[in-house]
Amino acid sequence: MDFDAVLFDLDDTLYPYPPCNAAGKEAAWREARNRGYDLDRDVFEELYQRGRNAVKREIAGTAAAHERFLYFKQALQSRTGTNQSTDALALGEAYWSTYLDEMQLFEGVSETLSALQGAGVDIGLVTNLTTRIQLQKIERLGLESVIDVLVTSEETGREKPSASMFTVALARLDRRPSETLMVGNSVVSDIEGGNGVGLTTVLFNGDEPDLSGQQQPDHRIDDFSEIRELIL
Hints:
The protein is of the alpha/beta class. 52% of the residues lie in helices and 12% in strands.
């Protein structure tokens, strides 16, 4: 196959998300305990989910709908009945600091990206969430030197599977859909979105085991290094 560019999702595609999220919430809980909130782990999880659900309900489809500072702000507000800015900030910082420390690339990612770069293939990231934290993730993972373009949903004002997430990246790389591969873990965000603009799509670490009745990726892989076989 002849591809001149590859677009990657970031979260749960280049590194595993669940252990980072779990570590971040654990750190936030400990910070809450340190600040005098008498909450066991299960009650804290319920409070976190209450804040998360409130944010998703109010601003779904925006980059900020993923922001943990908002989750903690809403959670503490519901717990205390008043604004707790300092505590919400501290919990958010504890979450993201620990999350970043936990991050590790999936096996084969570093070698694959280096091989693509060495072959002259353009590499872009198209990712939901706010720009600042995604920049921190790229720095933490040591990816800056191999990424040509980063597009976040904060920049476009729309989240994947919106076409704008992909077309903005293509425009910045000056590539056509027929020249570009899209790799991601989400059937809806990455595969449906990529298919919608004519990209060849690859599902890695898929979020749904059964794809019956859903849009299909052009390729489904279990080993990240298989991407090299599709391109090089």
